[in-house]
Design a protein that fits this description.
This protein has 2 helices and 19 strands. The protein is mainly beta.
């Protein structure tokens, strides 16, 4: 399945029905030294109004700013897509280490300007791990429909600034991860049991894991995972990953193994900041609606050779917006 430079830009739906189509761009950039994390997510829908939904979270030490905005898409130029909250300018659409993207965001309390650059060759999950992603919009357990779902994951570096109102800009730099996806999907059908993702930047490699669940039994045949090691020589598919969590639900050890015998293992040396984001908003303010809450845990690790890793463990869990609906309240009488 060919990955083209124009795939970085919005697509025209190619399916046979009116199921939801989404182009999505997702970035997480972390400056560990300055204790800054920027999360940015944009969804551009071809058949939903308004079409653009953007989420931006900035965490800087003990401060946090989070905003979500749904509007029309604003194409400032032919290479820019976004709205008044978040804008992405594609400076170089080629995949791999040639990729260049400028990310700008204007929140009420803080402004963000980042220049992102590709680090290693890109992991095209559909080609790398065929069968992990559903080929139909309803997912592995849902109804058939036209079109495919594409996911492309990449390691990146960044530099730029974060500027809180009334303060001087804070220069930031470090590692980033990104996910680019497009295609037909029904979020509630595909992800009603959630998913896990793990990414880690080593000195000369990046680890990536995505685990999609289609039932509620961890480790069952219904769980489908993609895993890779990326470095200057390319993207190497993994045939086994061991990820162990502690009682807080955060990773303590991890091991990635490729089919040709390469193995990278690491253990956590410090648990860093956590962030919680709205991946899917409730459909209604009055009805009990399913939503998806995404949690991100940042941590530092050491690999088997003593090398330092900056890691991100992200989870998504469905919840209902009305906590007490249908609950029986019992009293002494």
């Amino acid at each position: 399945m060919e990955l083209r430079a124009q795939d970085e830009f919005p697509h025209t739906p190619d399916g046979e029905d009116d199921s939801p189509w989404k182009d999505t761009w997702w970035f997480v950039a972390r400056d560990a030294e300055r204790d800054v994390v920027v999360h940015a997510h944009m969804t551009l829908s071809a058949n939903r109004q308004p079409p653009a939904r953007t989420t931006v979270l900035v965490k800087h030490g003990g401060r946090e700013a989070l905003e979500v905005l749904r509007t029309e898409a604003t194409r400032v130029r032919g290479d820019t897509v976004g709205n008044d909250l978040l804008q992405l300018t594609i400076l170089e659409p080629e995949w791999g280490d040639a990729k260049r993207i400028r990310l700008t965001a204007q929140l009420d309390e803080v402004q963000v300007a980042l220049n992102l650059a590709g680090r290693f060759p890109t992991a095209d999950i559909n080609t790398l791990c065929p069968g992990v992603l559903p080929a139909r919009s309803g997912g592995p357990t849902g109804p058939a429909a036209g079109g495919v779902l594409r996911h492309v994951e990449a390691s990146m570096t960044f530099e730029g600034s974060v500027t809180w109102n009334g303060e001087e800009p804070t220069p930031v730099s470090g590692f980033a991860i990104r996910d680019r996806s497009w295609g037909w999907r029904k979020t509630q059908a595909m992800f009603r049991f959630g998913w896990e993702g793990f990414f880690a930047h080593g000195t000369d490699y990046t680890l990536g894991l995505g685990c999609f669940r289609v039932d509620d039994t961890p480790g069952s045949d219904g769980s489908r995972a993609s895993a890779f090691i990326a470095d200057k020589d390319g993207v190497h598919v993994c045939d086994h990953v061991d990820l162990r969590l502690d009682g807080t639900g955060r990773p303590v050890t991890v091991a990635f193994s490729t089919a040709d015998g390469r193995r990278i293992s690491a253990e956590t040396t410090r648990q860093g900041m956590a962030a919680h984001l709205p991946f899917q908003d409730p459909d209604s303010l009055t009805e009990n609606s399913l939503m998806v809450v995404q949690s991100e845990h940042h941590l530092d690790m050491r690999d088997q050779d003593g090398g330092r890793l900056e890691a991100l463990y992200t989870t998504a869990r469905p919840r209902y917006s009305s906590v007490c609906e249908g609950t029986s309240f019992l009293g002494a009488g």
